[in-house]
Each structure stands twice: as structure tokens, then as C-alpha cells.
Amino acid sequence: MTDPITIGSVMTAHPYFIEIDSHLNSAKVMLAQYNLRHMPVKNDDNNIVGIISLRDIERAEMHGVDTSIGTDVLVREVCQPATFIVEPDTPLKTVLQKMADEQLECVVIATDNHLQGIFTVTDACKHYAQSLE
Q1: Is 40 helix (H, G, I), strand (E, B) or coil?
Q2: Angle, CA of 21, 86 and 89, to the nearest 5°
Q3: Are 40 and 17 in contact (CB under 8 A)?
Q4: For the segment 19-58, what is each residue's pLDDT rounded down to a tens digit?
């Protein structure tokens, strides 16, 4: 019997992240610059506290939040809590099932709450496409 595929073997390692007290415009710029849709959010203790997504920023803008350069809106005001954080040795099947059951777009991978990687729906699609080859 083979060992199950782990999330650590398919995650995006060492992802970009942003500090919770950064200006929201910085998150918007980083997401655009690196062509990302999700980014982990850390606090001053280097612990994961949330996820900021392009959708979060767009939703805030639709509700009148000014995300332009020079505004005082912080990431903490818009980001979502990181509700699903897993260890790198978690079986991929477990992660995929939880993502499907709870309609999660991404998962943060961490050891002792220190960021190791991120896994998104796009990553899942890429992995599945590769498995079909």
C-alpha cells in the first residue's frame, strides 16, 4: 500500500503574505503584481491570522471602501479569518473533502501556526489535470 499524497507535496510553498496592519492598498497591489487571488495574513508575532482575497477587496470597494493609495484602511478591516489551517502531512484527500464540504477557496498550511504554504482551488485543478495525463 502506498502512502497517501499529502497537502505538503502539492501546496505552493513559501507563499507571499501580508501583515494584518498593512494598508489595504498594499494587499491590492501585491495580489495584482503577483497574479494572486488569495494571500495569507500574519500578525506581529508572525502567526497566521487570516486570508485576504481579491474578492474581499472587490466586495469592500463595492460597499464604498476607498482602497486607493494614501487611505487609512487596513488589511485587518477586510480580511477573513483563516478558518482551515492544516499541517503539511495532512492527506490531500482530507483537505479536498473539507474544501468541497465547506466551499473553501483556499487552505493555509502551517506548522505551529507558522506559514509553510497555501493550497487553492486553482492548485487542486492543476494537480487533478496533471493526474489525468
Answers
A1: strand
A2: 135
A3: yes
A4: 999 999 999 999 999 999 999 999 999 999 999 999 999 9
Q: How far apart are CA 93 and CA 80, in angstroms?
A: 24
**DSSP state letters, 46-90:** S-EEEEEEHHHHHHHHHTT---STT---BGGGTPEE---EE-TTS
39: part of which helix (H) or strand (E)? strand 38-42
Is 1 domain-assigned? no
Buried b (16+ CB within 10 A) or exposed e, 16-53: ebbbbebbbbebbebbeeeebebbbbbeeeeebbbbbb
Residue 13 belongs to a domain? yes
Structure confidence at residue 2 (pLDDT): 67
- Containing domain of residue 47, as a range? 7-131
Counted domains in the chain? 1
Q: In this structure, is residue 2 part of a structural domain? A: no
C-alpha cell at 88: 503539511
Q: How many other C-beta atoms lie within 10 A of the C-beta of residue 95?
A: 22
If you ran DSSP here, which 8-state letter would residue 9 be given?
Answer: G
* Maximal C-alpha separation, the chain: 57
